[in-house]
Description:
By secondary structure, this protein is of the alpha+beta class. The longest helix has 18 residues, at 410-427. The chain contains 12 helices and 26 strands. It is globular. The chain binds calcium ion (3 copies). One calcium ion binds next to loops.
Amino acid sequence: MKSTSKNAGHRLCAALTFALAVTVVHAGTADGTATKIEAASASQLAMTDRIIVHYRQAPGVTRNADASMLATRLVHDASNLRGFTATQLHISGLGSQVWQMNKRMSLVEAIALSRDIATNDPDIDYVEPDRVMFTQFTPNDPYFSGGSQWDLFQSTAGINVQPAWDHATGSGVIVAVVDTGFRPHVDLAANLVAGYDFISNVTTANDGNGRDSSSLDPGDDVAAGTCSLYPNGKTSDWHGTHVAGTVGALTNNGTGVAGVAFGAKVQPIRVLGRCGGYTSDIADGIVWASGGGVSGVAANPTPARVINLSLGGTGACGPTFAAAVQAARSRGAVVVAAAGNNGIDVSNAAPANCPGVLAIASVGTTGAKASDSNYGAHIALAAPGVGILSTSNTGTTTPATDTYVSMSGTSMASPHAAGVAALMLSANSSLRVDDVEWKLIHSARAFPVACSGCGAGLLDASNAVNSVLGYSPPAVPLLTVTLVSSDGNGTASWQITNSRSAPVVLSDISSVASNASLYITSSSCVVGGWLTAGASCMVSTIGSASCSGGSYLLKATNSAGVASGNAWAEIPYQGCGS
Ligand SMILES: [Ca+2]
Ligand SMILES: [Ca+2]
Ligand SMILES: [Ca+2]
């Protein structure tokens, strides 16, 4: 099977920058500011007019309902003192209250307000600014006319997808594209299933209303002077349609482009509009995509096994993103994210840096890292993200006619990995999240040229699918992690158990992100040491007062030194230290 391509040349303007800093405030921190604020230029852009308030959840008790009166008073009082008027918008899919202010705040103000609220009620788990996220692409030269889809077929750095299609096309798998929505492009529409529009702000949404069941993309053009990220304005870029086409454009239909997993269905979930999108809306999109409930929204009839996030901003992984990703993974969804285009360590780019997210770096045709791609220890692997041709629209404001355009960025790299994950799941439906992640990473091809901080290697669809054909995931994980005690304030102890009937070697304990604020205070688990069948060791952890999250991954191998599926276990964050 081969693709036809060509016919690009649409123009896109304005490079993106990313803006937002680390911002979470938990209750009980005497000095809740323990957050990192980035350089002034970034902080100036880091504006929001929303905060997220999350109460501790007792089993069977909806704290937000119980506490709503107190919370309402706290938020109003704290907001008024700072000159804001607050309105509660909705309860998120994670059970958090989302509050709207009557005007925008700097991130510094938003952190201070969050601290005021959090420190006045010990039942509050955390309060964080509702940061705004953006698409992760770098528009091309306006006169660039995309040629072939090198990303799929080119031998040096392409993803080697044709041999994989002999075994799997993604059939039976839903891939959620959490992005700007979709256009019913002729080379894509038949591969779409219904999504949802989670943009709660009418101006951002640009479709005349807040949340609604149509995730059609009406355009996200911005007039000059209306969005700090695009001071000169921007035209609509149909980003979600482009990303969706990379995953699942109609293929072998004699038209346009080929998609990586053209037998899969793409579920377009709209979270980004004019001037980006709020973390709380994106988190609800992630939760809903995986089959979780969101108040006021009908259940997802076709939950996704793979979720693509070609979006982000700078800063640590906040508790809202972390909880959404964890919720999605617990329902069986693999979460793939663009590493970001800031040219920085991915540990400072959310949600790519969240525990349990596969962060994808971008490479060009030589296999070298794209100059603006984020990098670092948390990158899972790299995929093509330079000059990627896919489905789009000619409209510069409102939609016009179908076209194909070439775009660049980690936004374009991520859906290649999401598509390959779908191929793997369609080749072997018994795979669990950990199995897909492990096999995807360990089937990566060696880099043809140096690529520092680009993860395990180049995405290779054929290797990935071959690695799961006939593979039987182990019946139980190599390691299980059990919470033994937690003071709810950052200090916890964990039992790490070899739950298999054969011995394993604990091969690694490492922090997921280099700036994570979770620390091991004591451990009886010895890296390189054996855990016999059923044996356990103990790890004690403490979260720092900065509350910026983090986790540790424990890895194990079997007696032959081979890591098989589910070889990873995770020690998650348990709140702030004091
Ligand atoms: Ca709407
Ligand atoms: Ca809509
Ligand atoms: Ca096609």
